[in-house]
Queue: 3 jobs
Job 1
Amino acid sequence: MIERPRLPEPDGRGLADSTLAVHAGEDRLKSGNAVTDAIFCAATYTFPDTQSAVDYVAQKLPREEYGRYGNPSERVTERKLAALEGGQSAIVYSTGMAAICSLLMAVLKAGDEVVLFDECYHRTRELCNKHFGKFGVVTHQAPACDYDRMEAAINENTRLLISESPTNPHLSVVDLERFAALGKKHRVDTMIDATLATPYNVKPLAYGVDYVVHSCTKYLSGHNDLLAGAIIASEEKLEPVRRLRGATGMCIGPQENYLLLRGVKTLELRMRRHNENGQAVAEFLQGHRRIEKVYYPGLASHRDHEVARRTMRGYGGLITFLIKDADWRQTADVVDAVRIPRIGPSLGGAESLIEQPMVMSYHDFSKEQLEAVGIRENMIRLSCGLENPEDLIADLEQALDR
Ligand SMILES: Cc1ncc(COP(=O)(O)O)c(C=O)c1O
């Protein structure tokens, strides 16, 4: 048996994020002596004899049994993400929504209630309001970052407080200390969707949040080439969630897992550039005569700038802005005139992406519904990729000046 030393501490405590991103969770010596982790395309795993199967079932052997319950390389990704978030454990999923859905399924039952900030990812809101509503779960919404309204909605049936931070597309930033304290005060678990931040920019568990979820489709994988999700929390909290994944089968494929693992290794480098690009482009937009408003937490004009400065290392690559005196068609003209960002949903990849939320994610909302969620016809969402910031700014300038 080859001895397989890991990092000095199993979770890499004390090491910087860039070192963790490259090494945490990995064996020093891997299959075939390769420097990279292997892709195991195995649906099932075999046993040399019946006693080994008996020992495994009695949890005496750390190994795999069947693909729906785990894959050796997936475990590496899980350990790496847990180390980066400063958490004990992580579970990887086929998509971000699979992660969120699994967590809700694992912790809620009929009669339970959740309270969420109304700027949560719109599919999370839909999942709670519409789909879990069918199974007897009651959802209350409070305006984003209105902690008093959130507290007022908590009662003896409340099981979970949910928010995204920063939110999408308004980039509101939750005061995680306050949010977690609210949960602790009322003995209610808290969940933060930190997709837009990544563990490079903020680590919600350090503020006392119970569950962090990610759409790894975005910055964590970083190349617009896969779908994946993750939940990070304590061992104890994740145990029932992990068992449920074995039953629902929302697991990631081996190829996607490999790409995710590879993407995470460059997280720090990529996030630095996304943060730089986001800040530079937001400052440019704020100074442009055709811009009515810019939503970016790195700007002093943003409502949550102080909270963001206190809790975040950088503010990411996502920027939302309003074109002055423009209807949806004139706004579309700006979107159509840019040459570098491509038109499409999603964010967090190497390629910049641009869209009008009203046209893309909220196309089936009525005028009243759009107003209620603060989506305007002159609103543009830009995910700054990894391109040169001066090129992005020059491109936006030519599109706005037409
Ligand atoms: C903040 C946020 N959470 C969750 C999701 C869902 O992730 P996925 O598309 O990987 O299911 C998204 C996707 O856009 C997102 O932006």
Note: The pocket of pyridoxal-5'-phosphate is lined by residues 95-97, 121, 164, 168, 193, 195-196, 215, 217, 227, 229 (CB under 6 Å).
Job 2
Amino acid sequence: MITTIVKPVGYCGGVTRAIEIARTVKKENPDKRINVFGMLVHNYDVVNKLEEEGIHTVYVTDPIRQLNEFTKDDIVVFTSHGHPKTYSEILEAKGITYYDAVCVRVKSNLDRIANAPGEVIYIGYADHPETKAVLALRDKKTIALYDVHSGMDATVITTMNPLVINQTTLSITELNKIYSAIKFKYPDAIYSDEICSATRLRQQAIMNLDEDTDLIIVVGSPKSSNTDKLFKLAKTHYPNANVFKVDNIEQFSRYHLNLKHIKKAAIAGGASTPIEQVEKIERYLASQ
Ligand code: SF4
């Protein structure tokens, strides 16, 4: 069996930086409770490892209440996905220290939207933290949400040339389909494709595998948007291949697959997947 690792692989720059920030904050404040507000990385193995290091994840269900529960013994770290400004304002008012690990790509997207001269159509997933951070800007400007699953919401766009901008981890092909739908309604819309390079390069690489690849394993947690896109692209582009999405080697090995007939395998990882998880699966395939 020939095995290819789809590159780039391992954490993207934004995830690497967010983990570094959280670990530095913990090291410099050993006696404080370090709370990451949301999943720092959309990977359960990584989040569990951080928990062992004393970096606690707060799963956000009721943000205002949860933020108000912090005390001066807490330090809060906001994730790479961005957060509504009101969240940090709550902490500032209570005198609680916080750090913002927002990815520079997400931050520049938020700034572009905030400073756009006209109306905005934002393409993303309604339940993704990046989308929530964008929609929090609605107090200043008109932003319609084009949810990838359910289409455009009821926000009224009055001009024919809104700025169309998107979540950083969407699928290239999915975005092009949505563009066509928007173009039909807003022929003069202005497009700003914000899929980040970490996401785009992985998607392009998975679409450029040998056509006769017969096993593709995409490694990453269900919460990871860009991992999900890699999986869907692999399923669409290689209809004859066996395509799996797994969290880690433990999950993959539970399938007890007979791999003797596999000639070409490929392993891909999302931007939040540690490279070690990919390498473990590579070693497993080599041992078959
Ligand atoms: S996937 Fe892209 S936007 Fe998201 S953290 Fe990584 S580099 Fe930043």
Note: The chain has eleven helices and 13 strands.
Job 3
Amino acid sequence: MKDLLATTLFGLEEVLAGELESMGAESVRIHNRAVSFGGDRDMMYRANYHLRTALRILMPIRSFPSRNENDIYQGIRDIEWEKFMNSSDLIAVDTVLLSKLYRHSGFISQRVKDGIVDRFRDRTGKRPSVDLKDPDVRINIHLTDRQCSVSLDSSGDSLHKRGYRTEPFLAPLNEVLAAGMILLTGWNPGQAFLNPMCGSGTLSIEAGMIAKGIPGGHYRNGFGFQKWKDYDPLRFNSIRRERYLIENKEFTIIASDISAQAIRATQKNLASAGLLGQIQVRKSAFESWNTDLNDGILIMNPPYGERFDESNLFELYKSIGDSLKHRFKGFQAWVLSGNPEALKHLELRPGKKISLFNGPIQCKYQKYDLYEGSRKNVNKSKTQ
Ligand SMILES: C[S@@+](CC[C@H](N)C(=O)[O-])C[C@H]1O[C@@H](n2cnc3c(N)ncnc32)[C@H](O)[C@@H]1O
């Protein structure tokens, strides 16, 4: 059994570890933006196809001490690359540089490529070429001051590229972030799920996939390992039939947005995820959205302010807080925002605060239990 490494976004390590455990992975250990686990080739296929909160599944092949570029070149050249690939394969090298000894990651990737190419040329007279967009084999280098770790990237394109989004709208959430946000709430599909300000619908689609037990990689065109020398399509086909979630025949997921364009994008994306008609979509301002549901989970990702002047943004958050308080009693609301000042204008007391990143933007993901008396004492908080 080898050690495999699933990379993820900051703040999602624990939900990823939970996903891995529920699919039977052993020796699950949490790291910074990654989770390691024991597994064979089947587990690597399974992780790629079924996980929702992993970005990439890396298969470490060698780690060696290195103090300079020559050590790296030599160490790379010594690896038996012919075990993993053919001389005619197209390769791409991604370097994660955690050392100031080196100029830049592109330079290291170049030396790594040289080591691989020279090994093949010496042995076979032929050499692999580089294709950064659509390689057969993607190699991942993790470099510190003293150690060079080499992995094969079994995912190919990042796993957040689910394959269902055809229509973006404004700033869509990364699918891995959206799935992680849902799993962080502990939502179970027996509860209603509301997604006001849905934009292109990412949260609702990820919720729909969870409710229907559709694996995270179900709609993808393919995975990196399918181009590997040892790819076993029969094993992969049988792993694709495994299910780690119950398929719920009935569930209530409602997405809404004030913008007609957002609603159109959501409908298109739902259609390409095979969920059209199963998730309710409404064009509505959140301020005028009424529900007759008594409880459930509500997740929203309101604007952060890039397209607003500040006073309008604070007004918007104030009115979101009012709506939550008066019209969603009994719900647990979770709000993701990159604007901590604006969050204060909800005038609600958070029960939990989680740090996440939406792309480069540092965000807070805050939970509000909406019951009688959950409103902050506004006067008191102003005098503090
Ligand atoms: C940051 S985007 C949400 C992105 C979304 N999470 C996604 O993955 O595509 C914010 C959304 O809030 C919507 N919005 C802004 N003000 C609104 C309001 N008062 N009522 C309903 N929707 C609103 C915008 O139209 C926009 O689609």
Note: The first strand starts at residue 2 and ends at 7.
